[in-house]
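Morning, I've got a small favour to ask if you have a moment. I've dropped the whole record in just underneath, so have a look.
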Amino acid sequence: MTRPSLPMRHRGWSRLSAALLVVVGVVACAGGPTAAATIDVYYAPEDEPLTRLSKLYDRATRYIYVAVYGLTSPIAVKGLVEAKKRGIDVRVITDRERLEDQKQKTAVETLHLAGIPILVNQHDGLMHLKQVVIDDEINASGSMNHTGSGNRYNDERLDVIHDRAISLKARDKFLAMWKDGQRYRPWKE
């Protein structure tokens, strides 16, 4: 028995319906629909992105994980030390060669004296990330180092992403680096 064909206008609708069902199925298999991420974009020097990031440090309730190449800014150091004093789990990964810079060494020493654990790379490449993860909800990244120049003088960009899934992925990458004893080592015991 042959099936009667649909009128031409219904054939297009059937194809569209089938395509929509495929898309819905893919989204459902990927974990279901989620709210869209919001992203705040800050440019230096006009937006002073590190000043904005330090305000997020003030609101952290569980942890702040920082992986950054350059860390010399008193704004960043103060924000991280104050978070540690509030009982926040603060951890830092930075580049060992940057510790040859006296400003970087002073900043890292201040963090260390506050009880913040610090890892440095021991692989041949640079630890060149500029990423902060806060409380599984915020992931900040971009070209900006945690330096005064990165905040007020250089042409820099900082993206602050408010999204749990993206933040969890960034947190997992940080923790994988943190546990990698071949590529990273404690700066001081």
User: Anything to note?
Assistant: The radius of gyration is 23 Å.
